[in-house]
Amino acid sequence: KEPCLYNFEVMQAFIACVETFYYGDFEKQNLVVNHEVDLYKSKSGSFGCTLARSVCEKKDENFDPGNWWATYGCETPHLRKLATRILALTSSSSGRERNWSCFGVIHTKKRNRLDVNRLNSLVYVQFNARLFKRQKKN
Question: Which stretches make up the HAT C-terminal dimerisation domain (predicted)?
Fold first, then answer.
């Protein structure tokens, strides 16, 4: 099966992620994008060993991708660091809940006929006003 890194859009997003993660460090960006990813894509070194490949292909509910990268990504330390950081992220809906909270305050029974553009503008102003107050406190 071809890795998704051969997909143009996935690769563009990956490059943007590398540029952000290693911001200002062109040498590391270049190393990750032009060398370490090639090792991963071509299954060279530890990525090509039978155990590393079979662990990935096996459908195991106890499979831990972060642990896999820690074990087999030794030859690509910068890519390993990026991968383990991304895999350690937790998904959260708190940002969306805050957004819906702003909408709930503005879009009431009395104001349910607001134009979409006006509603979006009011939410934008209210959200940024709250953000400004919070930053001012700190």
Answer: 58-128
